[in-house]
Amino acid sequence: LRVAYGYMMTHPGKKLLFMGQDFAQYDEWNEDKTIEWDLLQYDFHAKMNEYVKCLNKLYKTETSLFEEDYNTDGFEWINNISSKESIVVFARHGKKTDDMIIVVCNFDTIEREDYKIGVPKKGKYKEIFNSDAREFGGTDFVNKRLKVSKTDECDGREESIRIKVPALGI
């Protein structure tokens, strides 16, 4: 669920979650029944709820995720053909030149320790969100340090970085 919600929130277009999905309610929303709020007493559901809260906050604070939603300059594929690894990488751009966020989604059950991705420009890259953080119920397979790009071609780009990519994570 975390990778699917993360992908949905970072990909262009408007966002939609049905009632109860923000805490992983088991049953589909039903207008004849109340939402199963009592599920929040369980760790899994509470952590999923925290994940969605943080994802919403990220969406609201990172202008590159919404400013150019209807402009083709706001979205850039970095790697959409990594079918063996089930990983997609894309960048979202805001109106300002330096306003950019790179999104890495792993739809596989295998974590990647040293995964190389091409980056749009030379510089330092900091992980600001990881669905596998312990606070969301993950294993904390995160990138704690800045990544400095190197001149090492990848994904058709001159510069690249190497990162940890959690299984079923974003």
What descriptors fit this protein?
single chain, 170 residues, alpha+beta, three-stranded antiparallel sheet, 2 helices
Describe the protein in words.
By secondary structure, the chain is α+β, with helices and mostly antiparallel strands. The chain has two helices and eight strands. The protein has a three-stranded antiparallel β-sheet, covered by helices on one side. A three-stranded antiparallel β-sheet has the order 4-8-7, with no helix packed on it. Strand 7 (150-154) and strand 8 form a beta hairpin. The model has no long low-confidence stretch (mean pLDDT 93).
Question: In summary, what is this structure?
Answer:
16% of the residues lie in helices and 28% in strands. It has helices at residues 2-10, 43-61; strands spanning 75-82, 87-93, 100-106, 112-119, 124-125, 147-148, 150-154, 157-165. The longest helix has 19 residues, at 43-61.
Helix and strand arrangement:
Blueprint: H1 2-10, H2 43-61, E1 75-82, E2 87-93, E3 100-106, E4 112-119, E5 124-125, E6 147-148, E7 150-154, E8 157-165
Antiparallel strand pairs: 1-2, 2-3, 4-8, 5-6, 7-8
Helix pairs in contact: 1-2
The largest sheet is:
3 strands, antiparallel
Unreliable stretches covering 5 or more consecutive residues: none
Strand order of the largest sheet: 1-2-3
> Mean of residue pLDDT?
93
Secondary structure: number of strands: 8
User: What spatial form do the alpha-carbon principal axes imply?
Assistant: globular
Strand content: 25-35%
**What's the number of helices?**
2
User: Helix proportion of residues, in percent?
Assistant: 10-25%
Helix-strand makeup class: alpha+beta
Task: Give the C-alpha Rg.
Answer: 17 Å
User: Based on the structure, what is the oligomeric state of the protein chains?
Assistant: single chain
- Report how far the terminal alpha carbons are from each other: 11 Å
Order of helices and strands: HHEEEEEEEE
